[in-house]
Amino acid sequence: MCTSITVNKNKTLVGWNLDILGMVHRVRSDENGVYIDIKDDKEGWIPIFGANKRGDFVGMPTCHPFDDRSNPVSPACPITMMLGIDLLLQKKTFQEIKSIAEKEPVYSIPGVTFMSSLTDAEGNVLHIIPGQGYKYYEKPDHIVLTNFSPFKGESEMHPWMGLDRFQTAEKMLAAMPDDGDVDDIFKILKACSQEVCPTVVSMVFDTTERTVYWCENREYDNIQKKVL
């Protein structure tokens, strides 16, 4: 599931709800960033989501329903998850990944359509929808991505698509004042949080201040903080 938000008002703020079921996660930080790692049986802990000190943020909601066009066509084709990890770990820049998406199709891992919601330090946003294309937004006032493709919109209704979360976030963001801050984003994440496929991490990146805030398991009165 998951909900991704980017806001550009007086500040650039990024919000992220990680909604997962049956997966092991941890939140980890160092001098270069704050990472949400997912434990893989073969690879161990993999940093998939989070923020880095350069000002990038990586979120990857899944797309419902699964679109088999996202399956990789060759071992050499670019994969959303790997591009996101490279951005998060500062192995590639936002512009380099944008250039890849502009030049050739990007795919996902087999059987899962992992979309990318990438934000840079300037508040620009890149949504990569594997097998379908990409959308680039130059410093939008606000942008939301849940679990349906922006190319398809409401044409494929599905209980896991997160249309309700999308509409909730859009309504609250439209009413958010220019001086809105971290607390306002947490209010939106709380309103979009899930229990069936539980929200295990809610994270806000104050990109302007290079500060990451997060809580786990919907404990919104227990916010952690890391200045990068």
Account of the 3D structure:
By secondary structure, this protein is an alpha+beta fold. The chain contains 4 helices and 13 strands. Strands 3-4-5-6-7-8-9 form a 7-stranded antiparallel beta sheet. Strands 10-1-2-11-12-13 form a 6-stranded antiparallel beta sheet, with helices on one face. β7 and β8 form a beta hairpin. The longest helix has 12 residues. The two termini are 28 Å apart.
Describe the structure using short key phrases.
7-stranded antiparallel sheet
Number of helices in the DSSP assignment: 4
Query: How many beta-strand segments?
Result: 13
Largest sheet report: 7 strands, antiparallel
Binned, the helix content reads: 10-25%
SS content category? alpha+beta
Principal-axis shape equals globular
Terminal residue distance: 28 Å
Q: Trace the largest sheet across and list its strands.
A: 3-4-5-6-7-8-9
Give a quick summary of the entry:
The protein is an alpha+beta fold and 228 residues long.
Element layout with pairings:
Blueprint: E1 3-8, E2 12-19, E3 25-30, E4 33-40, E5 44-52, E6 57-59, H1 80-88, H2 94-103, E7 116-119, E8 125-129, E9 133-137, E10 142-145, H3 163-174, H4 182-191, E11 199-206, E12 211-216, E13 224-227
Antiparallel strand pairs: 1-2, 1-10, 2-11, 3-4, 4-5, 5-6, 6-7, 7-8, 8-9, 11-12, 12-13
